[in-house]
């Protein structure tokens, strides 16, 4: 029984790897189960999971809706001057 539990339990390093991995590909059933079991008992990895989800959402939003870039009139004039010399 102890050997079976040891194989199912994840270290925090592996749990954070799985948390990151699930953003890019689907976890296997075993990985998903192991991660859920680990998250039930580890408040640090739960916090990492929540923070990672927030960051991923923000990055996704910025990638699809980039904020408008605004230049000062001085910077615009400087760029136009450099481009005019070419």
Features:
about 90 residues; mainly alpha; 5 helices; rod-shaped
Q: Low-confidence runs (pLDDT<50, min 5 residues)?
A: none
Provide the residue-averaged pLDDT: 89
> Tally of extended strands?
0
Structural class: mainly alpha
Distance between the termini: 75 Å
Shape: rod-shaped
Number of domain modules: 1
Order of helices and strands: HHHHH
How many individual helices? Answer: 5
Determine Rg (CA atoms, Å): 23 Å
Estimated share of beta-strand residues: under 5%
Largest sheet geometry: none
The helicity comes to over 70%
Outline:
With about 90 residues, the protein is mostly helical. The protein has helices at about 1-10, 10-20, 30-40, 45-65, 75-85. It has one domain (about 1-65).
Describe the overall structure.
By secondary structure, the chain is an all-alpha fold. It has one domain. The protein is 74% helix and 0% strand. The protein has five helices and no strands. Helix 2 packs across helix 3. It is rod-shaped. The model has no long low-confidence stretch (mean pLDDT 89).
How are the SSEs placed, and which strands pair?
Layout: H1 2-8, H2 12-21, H3 29-41, H4 43-64, H5 73-84
């Amino acid at each position: 029984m102890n050997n079976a539990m040891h194989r199912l339990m994840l270290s925090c390093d592996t749990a954070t790897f799985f948390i990151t991995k699930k953003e890019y590909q689907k976890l296997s059933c075993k990985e998903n189960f192991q991660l859920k079991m680990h998250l039930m008992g580890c408040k640090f990895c739960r916090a990492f999971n929540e923070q990672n989800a927030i960051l991923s959402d923000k990055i996704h939003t910025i990638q699809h809706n980039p904020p408008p870039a605004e230049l000062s009139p001085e910077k615009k004039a400087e760029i136009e001057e450099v481009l005019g010399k070419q």
